[in-house]
Amino acid sequence: MATIKAELTKRDFGFTVSDERGNFMQIDIPVDQGGHGKGMRPMPTMLAALSGCSGVDVVSILKKQRQNYTALIISVDGERETGKEPSLWKTIRLTFEFTGEVILLKAFRAVELSIGKYCSVAETLRTAGATITWTVLVNGEEMKSS
User: Fold this and answer.
1) 107 lies in the same domain as 68
2) Residue 15's beta-bridge partner residues?
3) pTM greater than 0.85
4) pLDDT tens-place string over residues 2-14
5) Which long-range contacts (CB under 8 A, 24 or more apart) does 76-82 make?
6) 61 and 78: one domain?
7) Which residues are CB-contacts of 95 (< 8 A; sequence separation ≥ 6)?
């Protein structure tokens, strides 16, 4: 069981969120909405969780395949529903950019397995109605999901 604690540490909207192991992050809202702008906004933390969840899956799969990447950068962007409260994620796009000795098809398949089968965050977002697509780049060579 995971235990998270959110403590109001910056007057009004700034929270320090921690887990049972002492890891923490700051959550806040922008100044123009009354916050201090000193932390991630709540909804983008979901995209951060998606990148971390799929990232660890992909790294695990590629290690088993003995793929020798030297770098991996995961970028995520999304669009939320408009004119609704709550406003859920509608579309999410990830880009996995690898450098090193990696076979593009293996990297693509690792991402496909993560997003489609293993990543609980991806499944949570999909169940809430989000469409998730991805692009894999290996040394500049590209492959996209449909």
Assistant:
1) yes
2) 8, 27
3) yes
4) 899 999 998 889 9
5) 76/47, 76/48, 76/50, 76/51, 77/47, 78/47, 78/130, 80/43
6) yes
7) 74, 75, 76, 134, 135, 136, 137
